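Escalated from tier 1: TXE holo job.
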Amino acid sequence: MSDIALLPSVTTFFRRDHGMFIDGRHIPSTSSNKIGVINPANGETLAHVSDASDSDIDDAVVSANQGFKVWSRTSPAARAAALFKLADLMEKHREELAQIETCQSGKIIQISRAFEVDQAAHFLRYYAGWATKITGETITPSLPSFTGERYSAYTLREPIGVVVGIVPWNFSTMIAIWKLASALTTGCSIIIKPSEFTPLTILRIAELAIEAGVPAGVLNVVTGTGRVGKALIEHPGTDKVSFTGSVPTGIAVGKGAMEAKLTRATLELGGKNSVGFLRDIDLDKAADGIIEAGFLHSGQICAAAERFFVHRSQIESVMDKLSLRLRALKIGSPLDETTQFGPVTNKQHQQKLAGFFATARAEKSTIVHGGNIPDGPGCFVEPTIILANSVNDTLLNEETFGPIATFLPYDTEDELLHLMNSTPYGLSASLWTNDLSKAMRLIPEIEAGTVWVNMHTMLDPAVPFGGIKASGIGREFGAAFIDDYTELKSVMIRY
Ligand code: TXE
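Tier 2 regenerated the structure:
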């Protein structure tokens, strides 16, 4: 098979002079600094975006505050209707959005279509449904009554204001949709700062939002580096940041937000997620499970697993079966519909992964499969299996965010639990077993925001998602996101 042909609308979009999306339209940036957007499959420059100037940032904040005034007074049903329409428009432009996403991120086209567009639209509709269901509560105070006076109280959930959504490069469409959907459903406005590596798809979606009836100023997109994100968070005209990205940047963002003006922060950070296979598991299912947990989108998923614990008597068989599966993966161009494994998203990340291979070799961990960077202009990285010497090996402790599964054998279930929890992070974990009662007893012992049983990585909008320990603060999805995007106002009445 060969690459699919790019739609004319996609090639025309790449050629545009991309500025900021402020006040419902694209406006040229006042900055002359441009950032090249590189196709990681072949190293070619796809487009240029602007690195926002201070005045671009000010303009976006002014616009978002005006947008907030309008949107927070728009009825919940009208807000929901606009978001439902946006989901429809994303589906109508499915192929165009998926192609833009694949070209900028290297994500295989099947994943761009199924997750970045279809799943993103599904999440958007789920969130839109909440707009009409956000409520407070009524309370009867117990204050003393001296002259027969009585009291009543109730709470209001009010939108927090202008949200800054900081988006990483791994799922640049879907994560942007999570943030804009959370904000717009609750009546907030949002300024999205996409990753400098993958800024294009959201610039196109912002246009669709206007077509869907989202008023000007409610969704602004400001492109640029981390400096732009920092300036937005610390700007006196913004009220909250919702950040997804790496742990060190997340900690800097959280500190900066607190110090600036107690800006509210939701931080969805990375992790070092564990998988534990109990002895009763079918070994073929275990190997399939590792592909799902560790290698989808080349491991560039915050919830993906990187540490795999298998009973000592089974570890060799599991690694053999996994090697066979990795050898059979079709690695190649992400625009070829038969490709199963594409490049990683940028050169810096490819080099970081090369550094992890060098560390594994220096520490004398066993590289069972892969462990190399293929020659060529694309950002390809071999899918890799590593057998660690001990729980202290770097590859079992630092987030690689790549297609690297590191294994360690265990002997007893107590040891398995200890190994699974021996990380400062706690975003996700999975247990694989056919023994339900064992699983039910182990689930409460596992330190992670999400625990899967016989599955890994799959997220559903109805199920809250977020990290414990150093993996973040706050929750997305379910009803849990509402607390993070609203302030609780208490009202007391004497009568
Ligand atoms: O992420 P950052 P980067 C990991 C992955 C990768 C490494 C670095 O291992 O190799 O992080 O990637 C914006 N204030 N993950 O540099 O720095 C930045 O512009 C405000 C894991 O891309 O976390 C981008 O929009 N914003 C991860 C976003 O933050 C700032 C997903 C994420 O950038 C900022 C992505 C600042 N001071 C990478 N500095 C996961 N686990 O989900 C940067 N940004």
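The longest helix spans residues 109-130.
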